[in-house]
Specification:
single chain; Rossmann fold; Alpha-Beta Plaits; 3 domains; 30% strand; binds guanosine-5',3'-tetraphosphate
Amino acid sequence: MEQKLKDEVEARKTFAIISHPDAGKTTITEQLLLFGGAIRQAGTVKGKKTGKFATSDWMEIEKQRGISVTSSVMQFEYQGKKINILDTPGHEDFSEDTYRTLMAVDSAVMVIDSGKGIEPQTKKLFQVCRMRGIPIFTFINKLDRDGKEPLELLEELEEVLKIDSYPMNWPIGMGRGLLGLYDNYNKRIEIHHPDINGINGEKIVELNAEGKIEGDHPIKKSSLYDQALDDIELLNEAGNDFSEEKIINGQLTPVFFGSALTNFGVQTFLDTFLNFAPSPSSHKDISGNKVPATNDEFSGFIFKIQANMNPAHRDRIAFIRICSGEFERGMDVTLARTKKKIKLSNSTQFMAESREMVQRAVAGDIIGLYDTGNFQIGDTIFEGKKCVEFEKLPQFTPEIFMKVSAKNVMKQKSFHKGVQQLVQEGAIQLYKTFHTEDYILGAVGQLQFEVFQYRMLHEYKSEVIMTPIGNKIARWIKPEQLDTSMSSSRNLLVRDRFDQPLFLFENQFAMHWFADKYPNVELTSLL
Ligand code: G4P
């Protein structure tokens, strides 16, 4: 690859922001977009109050509920870097899309509410990042409010998420008493509200070699300053050492404190984050070999397909993560699954406030291709003669289930077609009961069912009846170990779409009871 192109790839930073709802992901995203000059005012991303939807007004359901059903992509420039943020809905109704988006990023920013600590959705998303071994940067938000003690929050990271942490900065007070941030990494103090409390309008105070403020300074009068120094000393002695290698391997998370709403500590976070966040490097193919981002030839994989972006045209957009080389509009590629040649002429890129036709993009970027039914989730496309096929995207164990059937028995054909296509697309999981072959749908979030129902009606003209069968614990079993008499009233025996048998257990108790009764039967989950 030419040096110029290598530099372009090196300038890419592609990451996702993960959090539990209300931790402040949207607020922080907006601050980042403001720094990059990509939006002019806050409130553009979600637009809950203004009624303006910037990036994700694609589906009627999204509009009705004011949430982002599928992860959106935003690109902007900041200090010579091209930043791609992939949004993962933190809403509790999130779906497998949310998880798969994390397959397309090189690092993740985890936003935590300082008052609440680690919440369930953060934990789930964190686990997917961990499985991929990508670097995770932590931003502990809402420091302008009274929250948990900073040391307690670090302990939670280590105990709940089992990840080592390194505080890059440390709060001096919090809530109304927030005086500043002790920037342990840059050896300086960022003063909060520089124009009040008589702190002479200065924002940054450099520290001396001992890590203290030289001479007189109003902040030194506060016991909170002494407390922060004590904490830092304790952490320097007893805490984890800073290690860039461990950060890159996802074993150590650098922790930043701040307040997204009052824009305090956010820019320092962004600057430091961009220093350490990896640029695109390589992706593994199905044989486990690495395909470097700097390969001359273009390659990429589809991590999401979104239909109905424009209902008038019934279009579908396949989202591609470019893994190597350069994309040019109109180029010819091969689809690895079918070996079919495809011309990529109709493509789009996602800027903060709009979608634009993209002429050119490089490794690390995300592009959208208009799809007429060629693509499936997980597909690889590549340029040139040498076949590239990236490793399969993981499947996630569904947690909630519905029985589904066509309302109008005369319309079985469109019902089956719709179900097959949506399942292939990866929108939802399909199971069939063992003897009666009833259709059961499985999802990781309730919203997947709503999207399914909506799309069946609008795209396949098939009205469906969905009957909830509630939360279940899905466990696969080896076909040779299966005896249909193992099925009881506490579990439902079904087949997945690859004909593999699995039990849907009513609850943990039912599963443990089963495991005790059949100790030699191995039960496995996906991810
Ligand atoms: P999310 O995308 O993670 O769901 O969170 P979002 O940014 O929408 O923030 C959730 C709520 O928390 C919002 O208030 C937002 O203003 C507030 N918030 C975000 N960051 C901070 C912070 O640093 N400090 C404080 N005190 N609050 C913060 P809301 O009133 O629920 O929503 P909205 O009506 O303002 O959209």
